Structure formats: C-alpha cells, structure tokens
TrEMBL record:
It comes from Psychrobacter fozii. It is a multi-pass membrane protein. Belongs to the UPF0014 family. This is Putative ABC transport system permease protein. One of its GO terms (cellular component) is plasma membrane. It is found in: Membrane. Keywords: Membrane, Transmembrane, Transmembrane helix. The chain crosses the membrane at residues 12-33, 40-62, 68-85, 97-120, 198-216, 228-250.
Length: 263
C-alpha cells in the first residue's frame, strides 16, 4: 500500500454528525445578535443533509448502470432546476423570465460542458456519469449565480433609467445604443464573483473541487490541473450566460416598433 493510500480518509456517519453539530455555533451567534436566522439556518442545514444524501443514492445507482438515457434525464433535470433557481433570484419578474433564464443557463452550460467532455477531457463514452454530471453541476451552479446577478441589475436599471432611455430614443438613438450602458454594467456585475475568485484562487482560497480531490488522496498536481480547467470553463460559461441573458431581457423591453416598454 502506498503512502497516498495510507493518507486516504473515509468519513463515517459519526464524522458527518460531528460536523453538523458545528451549526450550533452559527445558531448561537444568530441568537445572541438577534439576527433572526434560526429558522432559515435549520431549514438550510436539514435540506443540505437530505438533498445531498438523496443525490448520493441517485448518483451511486446511475454510476453503477451507466445508461445514456438515465444520465441525460439527470442532466435535463439539473438544467431545469438551475433555470428555475436563476429566475427565483430575480426581484422584478415578468412573463417569460423563466424562458429567458433557462435559455441562458442551458445554452452556456451545455455548450461549455460539451467542449470539456468531448475536446478537453475526451471522455469515452461521452455520457460517463462520473465526469459529465459533476462538471455540468459545477458549471450550472456558477452560471446561475452570474445570470441572476445580471438579470437583477439589468431589470432594475431599465426601470430606474426609463426616462433616460426614452430620451435617447427620441434623439434618434437605436434601441441597443440607448440601453448599451445598463447592459454593459449588468454583465460586469454578473461576472464579478467569477473574476474575483480567479484573482485569488491558489493564493487566498483553495477551491472545493481541488480540495476534495486532495483530501481524497489525488495527486496535487493533477488536482491543480483539473481546477485550472474548471475555472476557465466556469468563466466562459458565466460570460456566455450573462451575455445571452442580457440580450434576451433587452428584447423583452422593446416592441416590434422599437419602442421601449416595461413588460
């Protein structure tokens, strides 16, 4: 047995229970400072355990079978949930918002995941669940955050800057010219978390994927390479998602006569 094998650690249910008990510290802080977070903290903790335990059982079953249609079903469900989550984080809703967020999330995530699986990692077969499911999940999680931030700021800007936009249109500005600045600012806002994490990765923080691989006994150099690949995938997916989403929202705020409207 190698030294790496000796260092691998298997977590027991007792270890998980011990980690879960640390939530008591958070609850104590919430109670002392009257943050009124007790209910949501307990709900979040319970959902974390239940949801991850459930998906663990599902993934174990899918990994053992490796059927393409089952993997495709899981990927579809993950994408639908991501689109719904991105929509639910937007404060000002409108008819068609879910369609816009779903298109932005799915298009960017599926495109980037396909590149990762088929070109970069060259996984055979493409539906190998241990690769495609975690990669798509990682990209979806980051993309939906970026897209929801873009949606929130852009919709708020359109409402707040309505008169400025209409004034520019009255001065013969084209629709995209009138809203270019809000779109630019919204995409930058959506991209900021991703860019910030890239600036400090490896210096201030060790990302979850890399940390998990190292704790599982993987070669640190391989863990670093995988993390570099995933960081670039996340960056590209977030950029595409934010851009597509901003353009779809922009389309909703103009009618066929190029008049600015509030949907």
């Amino acid at each position: 047995m190698s030294d790496t094998d000796d260092m691998q650690m298997v977590l027991t249910y007792g270890d998980v229970a011990l980690a879960s008990s640390l939530i008591l510290i958070v609850l104590l802080v919430s109670w002392q400072l009257r943050l009124h977070l007790t209910k949501i903290l307990l709900t979040a903790a319970i959902r974390t355990v239940v949801q991850l335990s459930f998906i663990g059982l599902i993934l174990a079953w899918i990994f053992a079978r490796e059927q393409w249609y089952e993997v495709l079903l899981i990927l579809t469900i993950m994408t639908l949930i991501a689109g719904s989550a991105a929509k639910n984080r937007v404060k000002r809703s409108y008819k068609g918002l879910f369609t816009d967020t779903f298109i932005a999330v799915s298009t960017s995530a599926v495109f980037v995941t396909a590149i990762a699986i088929l070109i970069i990692l060259r996984v055979q077969p493409w539906y190998t669940p241990q690769f495609i499911i975690p990669i798509l999940g990682l990209i979806l999680g980051n993309s939906l955050t970026a897209i929801s931030l873009t949606s929130n700021q852009l919709i708020e800007s359109f409402h707040e800057q309505r008169w400025r936009i209409e004034m520019m249109l009255s001065l013969s500005a084209r629709p995209f010219e009138a809203v270019h600045e809000p779109i630019r600012a919204a995409i930058i806002n959506g991209m900021t978390p991703t860019l910030n994490s890239m600036l400090v990765v490896g210096i201030v923080s060790l990302p979850g994927m890399m940390t998990g691989q190292i704790l599982a006994g993987a070669d640190p150099t391989q863990a670093v390479r995988y993390q570099i690949v995933t960081m670039f995938l996340i960056c590209v997916s977030s950029t595409l998602g934010c851009t597509i989403n901003a353009l779809l929202i922009y389309r909703r705020f103009f009618n066929k006569k190029h008049q600015f409207i509030l949907p």
